[in-house]
Amino acid sequence: MSDWTTDTQPGLLRIAAVTTATPDMAASERAYCDYMGYRVVERSTVPQSLAESWDAPAAAGAAMVTLAPEGETDVFARLVETPAPPGYRPLTTFGWNAFEIIVDDVHTLAEKLTDSPFEIIGPPRPLQFMPSIVAMQVRGPANECLYFTMESGDRESSILPPPAGFVGRTFIVVVAGRNFDALLRWYVDKFELRERPVRQSKVAVIQAAQGLSPDQTVELSAIGMRQRGNLVELDAYPTGPGFPAAERPVIAGHLPPGNAVATFEVESIDPFAAEAIRSPGTRDEAVYRGRRSCVLRGPAGELVELIEVR
């Protein structure tokens, strides 16, 4: 099923990595490896230049573990040990709020995650507008939010990418802000992402996290990158008197807690270099493999890392 409302040549090619800031590296690594089947591809510490590119100089020297899903060799999940700020609650602040991962069988995964470090906050259920797609939501040991999603229908015609293993790669990253149009314009105007219909949706996990009424909707849409199934979901959290959504608490100099960084591939970073937090540079860690990268600050404060493929 395709419901694109624009047809462009997107500047973001695909999601190359996602980074979670965790206060307990050992616990997070065990959870991802034991319950999701991810494997360690690199153990290191955060170089000062990388920390500075994230505008997180205090992260220099922190433990960093890079993981890969089953069947994947060039897409990663990265963990960075980071102290947790007091009072942070997932799905209540602006910035990256969830990483969505393609899976083969979400119902079997839900059974496996029972009594695991992953707390199921939304059990498997069909999507409202695409019922063949079944998703569940969990809170991980670092207070990160992960969505696990499967296509229960025809996978050849699905908008979702096929899973390479039981638990596959991240294919959607979810960013929340105060204003939907500001999010949309920044991503579409800068990266020419393909647009889809904008929905006013009831999102149970957001309603529960923020204590919203059952009738409260969230304005959202998912906009497309060049590679099949790779999307950025834009959520506009309700704000104003009586609504709890706010800026994310961050310990000075560190990464944001939980869902911290989304990393994308682009053909060239030259068009974005002037806006980067630090000048682009070549990096040799597993995520970069000798390629140039830089980081932008998005409209909701999110860290948008770009890696050049050429």
From TrEMBL:
It comes from Stakelama tenebrarum. It comes from the Bacteria. InterPro entries: Glyas_Bleomycin-R_OHBP_Dase, Glyas_Fos-R_dOase_dom, VOC_core. PROSITE patterns: VOC. Residues 14-151 form the VOC domain. This is VOC family protein. It holds the Pfam family Glyoxalase. Gene3D superfamilies: 2,3-Dihydroxybiphenyl 1,2-Dioxygenase, domain 1.
